[in-house]
Amino acid sequence: MRESVFTLESVSFRFPDDSEKTLDNISFSIFRGERVVISGPSGCGKSTLLYLLNRLYPVNCDGMVSGNIFIFSKPAELYAPGEINHRIATVFQDPDSQFCMPTVEEELAFTLENLHVPFAGMETRMVEILELTGLADLRHANIQSLSGGMKQRVATACALIMKPEVLLLDEPISHLDPFTAKEFISWLDELQRQFDLTIVVVEHRLDAWETFFQREISMDGNGEIIADQDFSARRPILFPERVSAMSGETAISVTDLSVKLKEKMLLNSFSFKAKRGEIVAIAGPNGSGKSTLAKALCGIHKKSSGRIQSDGIGYVPQSPEYLFLTQSVKDELAFSGLASREELTELMERLGMDGIKEAHPFSVSHGQKRRVAIGAMLADKRPVLLMDEPTSGQDEAALYELFDLIDGRARDGSTVFIITHDMEFAASIADSVLLIKDGQLTGKFAARDVWQNEQLLAEHHLLPPKGVAKLAESFA
């Protein structure tokens, strides 16, 4: 008989300030050694469900739970606070939220100290996990100096150093480049087989996982389970074909742009132009300088040299909450005052925010925060728009709407730069691709010339998008 790790019987959950349940009548079992993915629309309660499994909820919030939750066949409420955490390790959606120490080494040591590991045994444990996760060269690195992808790997290393029986991951590859994501999944596959880990993942980028998962538990927007099925039964996302809206007029010109910080050259002599109506994907390995470029273009990072000429740039950062200035989603979108009431209503409807328009921007899910930031910047109507990982945390319906909104903005004459590791989305929408590696600009290429060039893709930790043959035919 298979050993149950989690069993939920008619479980519902509601936050005290909400009139509706976040989770409604959830029932399932997950068994030792299984690999399960939880999918569904942004804000449907996937992360909340994960936090019930690791006892973060309701212990650390005022939420109300009904039904029965069993962890390792024991009623969840009988575990003392923190008792289960060494057996069930969690990697959160925002890795910054779980770091307490400045360097990688200190963060790993802090985790071991909390587990009461003797000092004499710490070195061996740290060396093992650093080698296993490919982070040995970053042992003494300052965590906040790392890229989003590297932070995610550090957070995973901190979870694994506890030698857990269960690993819960909340969108672990959302900030990883395709090659690194594939390596991460392959490494996780080997680790699971070696230690018979039970792995539960909340995820939107399902195609990247290929055959890793055995089961998919799908939720709807009402916090209910609508399917519990074999993972192989799912279908891939297919975007519509797009006709370029590029004009001949230059919207932004960058000449010899360099950025140096504390004697370290982050960007070295970037030069490129983009036209009105052009959609440009910015791609490359984690830590290559993509986000640094976006911040330099909009003035967050001071340039060391060079020139940027544009008519005005809007920016949606990788951590969208940095943009929020108001107390509600609807006020956030209306903040610039440039969009009409009708335009704001349409934006909220298309971005799926009708149900959260009165909510505080900080209280909604990660995927919803990103859509709030995107909506606010679209309402701001800047001629040039920079989006850092806009597809992260977005379900299928949101991706289709994002595609239409970006395409529509380009047709209105705006120029859009998209930093992304989602090659399927990039291949469906981009006119051109800026490839970056080690702070150097490899070049700006027509998109059709990139997807077929396996060597160029490999050099920049990218994988050919699925359906590339069809794309090549459409460009012919």
From TrEMBL:
It comes from the Bacteria. One of its GO terms (cellular component) is ATP-binding cassette (ABC) transporter complex. Pfam families: ABC_tran. Residues 6-247, 252-463 form the ABC transporter domain. It is a peripheral membrane protein. SMART domains: AAA (SM00382). It is found in: Cell membrane. Keywords: ATP-binding, Cell membrane, Membrane, Nucleotide-binding, Translocase, Transport. The keyword Translocase applies. One of its GO terms (molecular function) is ATPase-coupled transmembrane transporter activity. SUPFAM superfamilies: P-loop containing nucleoside triphosphate hydrolases (SSF52540). The keyword Transport applies. Belongs to the ABC transporter superfamily. This is ATP-binding cassette domain-containing protein. It comes from Planococcus salinus.
